Amino acid sequence: EQSDQRKVGKSERLIRYLANLAVNGHPPELGADPTKIVSERTSGTTTVMAVPDEVKAKSTGGMRKILLEQGPEGYAKHVREHKGLLLMDTTWRDAHQSLLATRMRTKELERCAEYTNAALSNAFSLEMWGGATFDVAMRFLHECPWERLESLREKCPDVPFQMLLRGANAVGYTNYPDNVVKKFCKQAKESGVDIFRVFDSLNYLDNLKLGVEAAGEAGGFVEGTMSYTGNVADPTKGKYNLEYYMKLADDLVGMGVHSLAVKDMAGLLTPAATTMLIGALREAHPDTPIHVHTHDTPGTGVASMIAAAQAGADVVDVATDAMSGLTSQPSMGALVSVLAGTDLDTGIDKSSIGPLNTYWENVRSMYLPFESGQLSGSSDVYEHEIPGGQYTNLLYQSRQLGLTDRWPEIKRKYAQANVLLGDIPKVTPSSKVVGDLAQFMVSQNLEPDQVLAEAETLAFPESVVQYLRGEIGVPPGGFPEPLRTKVLSSRNLEGVDGRPGEALADYNFDEATELLTEKYGEKFVNEKDVLSHALYPNVFTEWKEFEAVYGEVGNLPTDLFLNPMKEGDEVEFEQSTGKRVIIKLVSIQPPREDGSRTCTFEVNGERWFMSVTDQSVVDSADIRRKASGPNEIGSPMPGVIVGLKVKEGDSVEEGDPLATLSAMKMETVIPATRAGVVKQVSVNVGDKIDGDDLLLTIEDE
To answer: For the chain, how long is the longest CA-to-CA vector?
Structure first.
């Protein structure tokens, strides 16, 4: 029976996804460039990328064995005593976040995990979780971020896993109660994270301290992180001089971190600045490992990382060649090759990483719709200071909005917005504040002096107002005046006193568990789901609504997940272990008056008919009308139709269930208000509706 979507077979829900994708394409918010979507299939078998079977890599037991046996303190000691340069590979996290809008699916990581485990067993770590990957997994990929972590941990047991923790913001864009951050870190450690890179977007010590405590109490290796901006080698660059970073490093070491990290999120570290900063840090903290992260936006990443190693850094960040360069990290192959046979030898076998690079070259070709269009490095990053991941997003957005010719202006406004906000470190979430203000200035044709003069009346983006209130912390040197006073006083707002999350009451996990269990059923809710909901309540709810309609689409091959089928397409893939399915899209009928279209499939030779609402027809014709009169059943509230219990021609009695609506964080069964025959069903499973929208019509028998 199709009334309970969880009882509907996996195949039916996946067919519904393929039908909806064929009719409506991807939602714009996914960010896939429609001009780069594959329109023709060259083979009936879906594309499966894999490291060649004949290529083997031998694991030496891995660095993780040392970490597990000796603990964080012992691992830190081992890293300091290690001869040569250690590497962290960002391919599984920051590389695709910077180049492909974080859209990499778990399947691609799983297929190379066992090989990676052997090829990079001498690596310091794999960065593979945290940052934007957590919410994007649910929001756009319709996957569970915890399942990604645990699946990869199982397939890659020998290399330490590293995550990016946004201090008091955990993996979110706001502040959370302290018990949420601590419970999150505890679960992350239990699920497979070994190393926590803890940073704060403003280098605000109180926020950093909470993140350090949470990761440390969970038993993790804690990297205390400095978000780098400015240029320590240029005395004209203002407050971000060598003294500033040395004081920040002292504070972090005083918190008991196991290593120091320099997070250069825009690629501003020149070789000269790197030598100066890392040399000074090494001299001041001889026993603490130093880990350096940069982006290759200006094209100097390899040179700067070599300079870091020569100045005393223990670890630097790289990405596999096919996922390196531009706004990503420097090339792994380049550093491995250049340093081979020297005192800084990385211990990575270049012959082992070659096949891995070939694999990622092939994978990246499947994700072409998410490429930003950037074709070269950009040395003007030294002026505008846009972080790597944000740079590609802003570039892509400008192209989508037809503002390609205004891209230089957007970069210029970004630099001006940064100064207006007090010249701050720019990384999530502070980078969003600067980006929002920059886009606001471009759209309103505002110059900096106009922003200051009209600050009391301008409709600033909400993120800017929240920043000026102090909702993400206090920036280095304090808030910009008189901008802050003008904005807050004109809105009758007061600034936040102290750490933003300190005043938040503890999150009630027991109550949340009870509510989620009541909504989804005990079988479908665990502690990790409750945590995901605590961090992203709306995103989690929308993901669960999506699954109720379309199932677990993570099982679909990536080319089928991304590329809509056309009439006549036939594909074959493994739906689950040992179970293969052949699906052919036979036809898509023209839309009916209500916007519905019937897609006819053949699934292993059996005909399936799936009705889908063509949103372009509904939107253009304003077909979705309100229910009126006793024969018409309307929706009691806005929501998503996740189940239909009747079809046209069915007889019903008053009170019989007609449909299931997911709304207001709960599922509601809509009953028949009278007995009769279902004359018309005006919605399909998956439709988003407003209150009082017509759902069904019931007439006398």
So the answer is: 89
Task: Decide: pTM greater than 0.85.
Answer: yes
Three-state DSSP at 693 gives strand
CA angle 149, 155, 157 (to 5 degrees): 85
Which residues does 184 contact at the CB level (< 8 Å), separation at least 6? Answer: 170, 171, 214, 531, 535
**Residue 622: other Cβ atoms inside 10 A:** 7
Cβ pair 132, 38 in contact under 8 A: no
What is the Cα 694 distance to its own chain's centre? 36
Give the sheet arrangement for strand 639-644, strand by strand.
666-671, 657-663, 639-644, 688-689
Structure-token match 């605000």, residue found = 204
DSSP state of 269: -
Rg (CA), the chain: 27
**SS3 of residue 63 by DSSP:** helix
What secondary structure does DSSP assign to 303-316, as a single string? HHHHHHHHHT-SEE
Q: Give first-to-last CA distance, the chain, whole Å.
A: 23
Q: What is the pLDDT of residues 664-693, one digit of tens each?
A: 445 677 888 889 999 989 888 888 888 888
Residue type, 39: S
Q: Is there a contact between 313 and 277 (Cβ–Cβ < 8 Å)?
A: no
- Sign of the torsion formed by the C-alpha atoms of 311, 313, 315 and 316: negative
Give tens-digit pLDDT for 266-290: 999 999 999 999 999 999 999 999 9
Mind spelling out the 3-state secondary structure of 127-162?
EEEECCHHHHHHHCCCCCHHHHHHHHHHHCCCCCEE
What HEC string does 71-133 produce?
Answer: HHHHHHHHHHHCCCCEEEECHHHHHHHHHCCCCCCHHHHHHHHHHHHHHCCCCCEEEEEECCH
Could you tell me if 13 and 612 are in contact, meaning their C-beta atoms sit under 8 angstroms apart?
no
pLDDT tens for each residue of 383-438:
999 998 888 878 877 766 667 788 889 999 999 999 999 999 999 899 999 998 99
473-527 pLDDT, tens digit per residue, is: 999 999 999 999 999 999 899 999 889 899 899 999 999 999 999 988 888 889 9
Strand 632-634 relative to strand 694-699, pairing? antiparallel
Q: Is the pLDDT of residue 53 over 80?
A: no
One-character DSSP codes across 375-412: -S--TTHHHH---HHHHHHHHHHHHHTT-GGGHHHHHH
- Are 679 and 665 in contact by the 8 Å Cβ rule? The answer is no
CA 230 to CA 381: how far, in whole Å? Answer: 11
- C-alpha to C-alpha distance for 437 and 449, rounded to whole angstroms: 14
Nearest-CA neighbor of 164 among 63, 110, 114, 90? Answer: 90
* Residue (of 427, 370, 365) closest to 399 by Cα position: 370
Structure tokens that stand for 546 in this block:
């999506």
Tell me the C-alpha distance between 549 and 686, whole Å.
Answer: 6
Return the pLDDT at 33. 80
The pLDDT confidence band at residue 5, using thresholds 50, 70 and 90, is: very low
pLDDT band at 52 (very low <50, low <70, confident <90, very high): low
Residue 324 token pair: 């390196």
How far is it, in rounded angstroms, from Cα 505 to Cα 52?
A: 53
Tokens 């750490």 locate to 499
SS3 content of the chain, % helix, strand, coil (to 5): 45, 15, 40
Q: How much is the pLDDT for 2?
A: 33
Edge-first strand listing for the sheet containing 694-699: 632-634, 694-699, 676-681, 651-652
- Is the per-residue pLDDT at 344 higher than 70? yes
